[in-house]
Target: Short-chain dehydrogenase/reductase SDR
Amino acid sequence: MRFAGRKVVVMGGSRGIGLAIAMGFAAEGAAVAICARGAEALEVARREIAGHGGRVFAAPCDLAEAEQIARFVPEAAASLGGIDILVNNASGFGMTDDEAGWAASIGVDVMAVVRASHAALPFLEAAEGAAIVNIASISGLRASTRSLPYAAVKAAVINYTMSQAATLAPKRIRVNAISPGSIAFPGGLWEQRKETNPKLYEATLASIPFGRFGTAEEIAEVAMFLGSPAARWVTGQNIVVDGGQML
Model:
């Protein structure tokens, strides 16, 4: 039980990578808080996490709305008894190079990270061995012709992670990022694209040297490492988890 007694907040935890991260921490003894926009999916996730052991707090929160983040984070801290680890996972998936695409990406992928980090900071400062894990993407490491806003904001998250790490090191708070490659899970983007854009699906699959898409659990395991004492001397890093896709 590596995380017995630890308190973990996952921003965007009702499905996919966020849910896998919350379940992984809960299974290792942590008390976990999750949020998402949809109350129904959130309740399903809460029950699933509770089934893996540990205490779970779940509340709806639109991560594009500053006041909702400002409300949820203190509520989560009050329920858990503090915050030791903050995981910023949500994405607005702004893919189109227009006002709507950029607004979705900036509002959630960037500003939700900033706002949640600021809201959690007083609790992280009071914790021992505190850590922030930001979920970025390999899209932030290269040019994109399909998803310009998404790639740009993930690059911003990677840079912000480094700046956060340098700023918060004197407070003994570590900050790292994970850049997943193409991850498939039920109801996720790649499952949808398998049906709607099989040509892109097959081309992406062919670009991964291991010959398969990654799983949400494989990202969760790296997040758990970064939140653990095993990574106590790791900060300001962006860990690529992609099965060699960037190669």
In short: The chain has a mean pLDDT of 95. The helical segments are 16-27, 39-50, 66-80, 99-125, 148-168, 189-196, 198-206, 216-227. The chain has one domain: 7-184+215-241.
